[in-house]
Write a structure and sequence with these properties.
Elements lengths: L1 H9 L8 H9 L4 E4 L6 H11 L3 E5 L3 H13 L3 E5 L5 H13 L3 E6 L7 H7 L4 E6 L31 E5 L4 H10 L7 E3 L7 E7 L3 H11 L3 E5 L3 H13 L4 E4 L5 H13 L4 E4 L12 E6 L6 H8 L9 E7 L1 H14 L3 H14 L10 E4 L2 H8 L3 H13 L3 E3 L7 E5 L3 H10 L4 H10 L8 E3 L1 H8 L3 H13 L3 E4 L6 E4 L17 H19 L5 H8 L12 H25 L5 H8 L5 H13 L2
Parallel strand pairs: 1-6, 1-7, 2-4, 2-5, 3-4, 5-6, 8-13, 9-11, 9-12, 10-11, 12-13
Antiparallel strand pairs: 14-19, 15-19, 16-17, 16-18
Helix pairs in contact: 2-3, 12-20, 13-15, 18-19, 22-24, 23-24
């Protein structure tokens, strides 16, 4: 029956390695963890058993784009599936929930982990006939994972409503420690892991110290045809690099999370279809995108973790044909990586001081403030504390973990602005709308790069400078957006901060080891692993990656930059020994005569080099 389902809906004659084992484990009612590398066919592992069982498969995924994509693909195959995600109307959500409760033909419901905290959803969920609980990106449940997301901890709570329903957890990247943590946090009845080797036979890794990255990138693209991805950290650089490549007649585009969804979908579609050869992106690009013929992936910045690098590099060569993963770095990249780590873990005393200043800023007396909801302006506080925004947000994140306060999601979702009108269009607009000229000029003075990028803005700060009300600033930006002068993406709500406890003296704050010390130790190990991978010159790149993920008995790949260098050194050593053996035969002759005799068989330059070394060593 399983092969029949596979053939009927996917037209495959057979499963990939481990897929059938995983499917049969789930059908036997076992909690199962499937650890399959990027492109290993994880979705088949829950979709096939769900179709073989009566009832509905609840799929938990953190990525809206991935949910939409999978639901669309299932519908194309004639399988009833739905997804609930943020931005949907209440009416639309009610319709989907009703279908999943009353229409037994529905087989899949995709939701984000945050949805599991909604009481109305839980009430409706208990009326559904759930056959399987599939948890995608399962590493997000582990606080020792590289992408920990607290809402994932809610997943285990719904198991009590379906005590006999198996859980299938899926991930592409997990260290042995995270593998154990996933099974524990999801309350597996017994440990049950199916793991495919992380080795990618067709993918060759190169890591190169390079001061002229753009020149090297250009040469690499010219030498390697086919579709590629260039990863960078900075949103602004995605556009700059794409334009640089376009200047050399390379079909390139840029992509990052600051673009509106319609623009992102268009750029992604053009790259998927081959209209665009190169996509330059932040790490926002790639999750859930299954393009088999990516021939090369280049990192111009060092990723924060080997898990992230493995996933991103692994988007190359999913068709099992030869592909390359290249990382170009310089000394500044190493320095930046270490700086980011320090900013991610502000000293405990700094965190305590931020708590004190925060309470003083809101004039909260000792012993008071519990359940206070107050407006939060990160820019204003950064100026007051004289620290970087990333340092402030990370410090507040640790205060959240102690249960002292809670930040609204909007703190991390600032509004963005991007001018789409050129200078000539602006001048024409000024002539007809003179009253708005000063406001537009204020925006341009306040934020650089508005014509070329989507820039984060602060409406409160603009209002202060313009001596306007915040609501008037927002309305004016919306009006200018409708007139195609600029693009304004407004945050859904104003950021706020909720104090969960009464104010205490900052010295009374206590950070448990697992909240700060242990987390910092794990992050330090990750950083050390990345630095070791980048700066390594002795061990095969593939071996290093495999060892990190627990595969300690792998063989050298023979193709990476380290292996090729080692082979080259070995060849030079053997050639040197052969030349030396020839020199010894003629040691009774003069130096010139030796060079003349041996140079019949070897290049004169190499003979002189070995002869000098032989003389130096007496």
């Amino acid at each position: 029956m399983l092969h029949q389902i596979l053939k009927q809906y996917w037209s495959y004659d057979q499963f990939r390695p481990l897929q059938e084992d995983i499917v049969r484990s789930v059908l036997a009612g076992n909690d199962t963890l499937a650890l399959l590398p990027t492109g290993g066919g994880k979705s088949i592992c829950f979709q096939v058993p769900a179709l073989a069982k009566e009832g509905l498969c609840l799929v938990i995924s953190p990525l809206i784009a991935l949910m939409k994509d999978q639901v669309e693909n299932l519908k194309k195959r004639g399988i009833k599936a739905e997804a609930i995600f943020s931005g949907m109307s209440g009416h639309e959500i009610d319709r989907i929930l009703g279908n999943c409760i009353y229409d037994k033909a529905f087989k899949f419901l995709y939701v984000s982990p945050e949805r599991l905290k909604t009481n109305s959803f839980i009430v409706n969920l208990q009326q559904m006939t759930i056959s399987l609980l599939a948890v995608d990106e399962a590493h997000c449940i582990s606080q020792w994972g590289y992408d920990f997301r607290p809402p994932y901890l809610e997943i285990a709570e719904i198991r009590k409503f379906f005590p006999h329903v198996p859980v299938l957890a899926l991930t592409a990247t997990a260290t042995p420690e995270v593998v154990n943590d996933i099974q524990e946090k999801l309350r597996f009845h017994k440990k049950n892991l199916f793991q495919k080797s992380f080795k990618r036979e067709n993918l060759t890794y190169f890591v190169t110290h390079e001061e002229n990255k753009m020149g090297r990138l250009l040469r690499l693209i010219e030498k390697n045809s086919g579709t590629g991805i260039v990863y960078v950290r900075n949103r602004r650089r995605t556009k700059e690099i794409a334009e640089y490549l376009q200047h050399f007649n390379i079909s390139a585009d840029f992509y990052h999370a600051g673009l509106d969804s319609a623009t992102r979908d268009k750029k992604q579609s053009e790259w998927m279809s081959g209209t665009t050869q190169v996509i330059v992106s932040t790490n926002a690009f790639g999750m859930g995108i299954d393009k088999p013929d990516v021939r090369w992936v280049v990192h111009l910045d060092i990723p924060d973790t080997l898990e992230a690098y493995f996933q991103e590099a692994g988007r190359g060569g999913r068709d099992l044909k030869p592909s390359i993963a290249v990382m170009l770095y310089d000394h500044n990249d190493i320095k930046e990586l270490k700086t980011n780590f320090q900013l991610s873990f502000p000293p405990v005393e700094t965190i305590k001081n931020i708590y004190k200043v925060l309470c003083e800023h809101y004039q909260i007396p000792l012993g008071e403030g519990e359940n206070s909801i107050l407006p939060f302006d990160p820019d204003e506080l950064c100026k007051k504390l004289k620290i970087k925004p990333i340092e402030l947000i990370n410090a507040l994140s640790f205060l959240e973990k102690t249960g002292v306060l809670m930040l609204s999601e909007e703190v991390k979702k600032q509004s963005t602005l991007h001018f789409i009108a050129d200078e000539e269009t602006l001048q024409q607009f000024y002539q007809k709308n003179n009253d708005k000229q000063e406001f537009i000029k204020l925006l341009l003075r306040s934020y650089g790069g508005l014509f070329s990028n989507y820039i984060k803005i602060n409406e409160e700060e603009i209002a202060r400078r313009a001596e306007m009300q915040v609501v008037d600033v927002e309305n004016l930006l919306i009006e200018l957006s409708k007139k195609n002068i600029l693009y304004y993406s407004k945050r859904s709500n104003k950021p706020h901060i909720l104090f969960l406890q009464n104010r205490v003296p900052e010295n009374y704050l206590y950070f448990k080891d697992e909240i700060y010390k242990r987390r910092k130790e794990v992050a330090q190990k990750r950083l050390d692993s990345v630095l070791n991978f980048v700066e390594n010159t002795q061990t095969c790149r593939s071996q290093l990656l495999l060892n990190y993920f627990g595969e300690t008995k792998s063989e050298e790949c023979g193709n990476c930059d380290v292996c090729r260098k080692t082979d080259s050194l070995e060849m030079k050593r053997k050639e040197k020994e052969t030349i030396l053996q020839e020199i010894v035969k003629y040691k009774h002759l003069s130096h010139k005569e030796i060079i003349q005799a041996v140079s019949e068989y070897f290049a004169e330059k190499k003979v002189i080099e070995v002869l000098r070394e032989y003389l130096d060593e007496e």
